[in-house]
Write a structure and sequence with these properties.
One of its GO terms (molecular function) is nitrite reductase (NO-forming) activity. It catalyses: nitric oxide + Fe(III)-[cytochrome c] + H2O = Fe(II)-[cytochrome c] + nitrite + 2 H(+). Homotrimer. The chain is of the alpha/beta class. The protein folds into 3 domains: 27 residues, no CATH class; 305 residues, Cupredoxins -  blue copper proteins (Immunoglobulin-like, Sandwich); 129 residues, Cytochrome Bc1 Complex, Chain D, domain 2 (Orthogonal Bundle). The protein contains 12 helices and 23 strands. Strands 1, 2, 3, 5, 7 and 11 form a 6-stranded mixed β-sheet that branches. It binds heme C and copper (II) ion. The site of copper (II) ion has 6 residues, from loops. Copper (II) ion binds next to loops.
């Protein structure tokens, strides 16, 4: 089986080479290919683009290392790695190259491991040839027949566990004509991790097989740790530089909705293949898959890498930063202005029902809906952040303002709370609260409008307050 594969690979390679080189076909067959040793660097860095125009015999020495290190600040985990890093060391070859892969399983490791490269044409992708116990070295060769960005991973049983512990990386098979020049290249992979303790629970955490089977990751992170690409580890670029990111998902389970907040991908070589889509916001990358994204930051500041399945980003670690340096460009991105709404501005954007009624009505009648609109605007921009957009609150944290028995008992007194803030215990609809509501910096009209809005629209009550009454309350304070 192995022999057959090798034979046919050589035949194919020879004909491919001849086809490529055409007239200058005096070029040698495989045994005479120049031998190059693959340079291995730690992610997010990777070997430079290939400049040679002919095939080579590339020797790759990958060492499996089982290492204990932080998965989050103060949380340790035992990773299994290709080359000591998660993701494993990036391999970069050229279409038509012969790759001689050496896998070393260090004597101090506890388990057998192997490698399956998706860039290989042949059953198992090298898994059988490289399955070795600690203290051994395995070697096999394959011809990189098809260009693309491919995932490699350990394929030793239980495979899901080996991958979940960090055993994956990327191999780029560059097309024969090479890749377009860019200013910066980065290497990022997303992976899901399953620990017995909760997210950021301190100490050494064991792998949790049941959580893995249930596909309920404790961590979803870039480059093997919460914070691997933030703070001092942030990626960097200058405005107007062309950035290429080789992005992969090791998994074992979770598909990424890969997005960078604050930029648009100029090009996405989706699924790591040879075609690209332009002007993309978010690209979906499956477990065991990849994408090459290219973009050009234009203005200074932080771009944020996320899995746009956002609780993974904000609650499981899938966040990275790319810090962009350069001068401000207000024509592309301005700093913006914020100011309170005036009654006239609100009247302009008053909802349709008011307009219909106002058509042939007297001004006095039209005033009520605009006050209502103002109350809603004040609510949306000042209260909704805590009491929620639907005013139902958050049980035990922020009391509801809609259907609040507390509010309904003395609605007019609620202006005191808005003016002065409130803390201490309080019971709304039978639920106890003990929070802090900060005093709201609003004028008399706004306070009257928001209280009347809450009373009429959210509690089936009457308007209860005029701006003058609020002004009097303010004086008494
Ligand atoms: C920063 C969060 C926050 C904001 C913003 C906020 N509130 Fe509150 N609010 C609270 C908390 C917390 C309580 C409960 C305080 C306590 O436990 O004593 C509360 C209580 C109240 C209550 C009494 C309880 C009830 O449910 O009837 C009213 C009325 C109220 N807020 C109105 C408002 C209005 C109107 C606004 C906007 C103008 C607003 N709040 C903005 C946090 C907030
Ligand atoms: Cu393994």
């Amino acid at each position: 089986m192995k022999k057959n594969f090798k034979l046919s690979a050589v035949t194919l390679a020879t004909s491919a080479l001849l086809a490529l080189i055409g007239a200058t076909a005096a070029v040698a067959a495989e045994p005479e290919l120049p031998v190059i040793t693959q340079e291995l660097v730690a992610p997010p860095q990777l070997p430079p683009p290939i400049t040679r125009k002919t095939a080579a015999h590339v020797v790759v020495n990958l060492t499996v290392e089982e290492v204990e290190r932080e998965i989050a600040p103060g949380t340790r985990y035992t990773f299994w790695t290709f080359g000591g890093t998660v993701p494993g060391k990036f391999i970069r070859v050229r279409e038509g190259d012969t790759v001689e892969l050496h896998l070393l399983n260090l004597p101090d490791n506890k388990l057998p491991h192997n490698i399956d490269l998706h860039a290989v044409t042949g059953p198992g992708g090298g898994a059988a040839q490289t399955l070795i116990a600690p203290g051994n070295e395995a070697t096999f060769t394959f011809k990189a027949l098809q260009s693309g960005l491919y995932v490699y991973h350990c394929a030793t049983a239980p495979v899901g566990m080996h991958v979940a512990n960090g055993m994956y990386g990327l191999i780029m098979v560059e097309p024969k004509e090479g890749m377009a020049k860019v200013d910066k290249e980065y290497y990022v992979m997303q992976g899901d991790f399953y620990t017995e303790g909760n997210y950021r629970a301190p100490g050494l955490q064991n792998f949790d097989m049941q959580k893995a089977i249930d596909e309920k990751p404790t961590y979803v992170v870039f480059n093997g740790a919460d914070g691997a690409l933030t703070g001092a580890n942030s990626l960097t670029a200058k405005a107007d530089e062309k950035v290429r990111m080789f992005f992969g998902v090791g998994g074992p389970n979770i598909t990424s909705s890969f997005h960078i907040i604050g930029t648009i991908f100029d090009k996405v070589y989706f699924e790591g293949g040879t075609k690209y889509q332009e002007n993309v916001q978010t690209t979906m990358v499956p477990a065991g898959g990849s994408a090459i994204v290219e973009f050009t930051p234009r203005v200074p500041g932080n771009l944020t890498l996320v899995d746009h399945s956002l609780t993974r980003a904000f609650n499981k670690g899938a966040i990275g930063l790319l810090s962009v340096a350069g001068p401000d460009k207000p024509d592309i991105y301005s700093k913006g202005i914020k100011k309170p709404l005036t009654a006239a501005a609100v009247a302009k954007v008053a909802p349709a029902p008011a307009k219909a009624a106002a058509k042939d009505a007297k001004p006095a009648v039209a005033a009520a809906p605009s006050v209502h609109a103002r109350g809603k605007a004040v609510y949306d921009s000042n209260c909704a952040v805590c009491h929620q957009a639907d005013a139902k609150g958050v049980a035990g944290v922020f009391p509801p303002l809609a259907h609040s028995d507390f509010f309904q008992q003395r609605p007019y007194e609620m202006a005191h709370i808005v003016l002065n803030g409130r803390s201490g215990t309080l019971v709304v609809n039978g639920q106890k609260y003990n929070g802090v509501m900060p005093a709201q910096d609003l004028n008399d009209e706004d306070i009257s409008a928001v209280i009347n809005y809450i009373s009429v629209e959210l509690n089936e009550g009457q308007p209860v307050l005029t701006p003058e009454q609020v002004r009097d309350m303010r004086k008494k304070r």
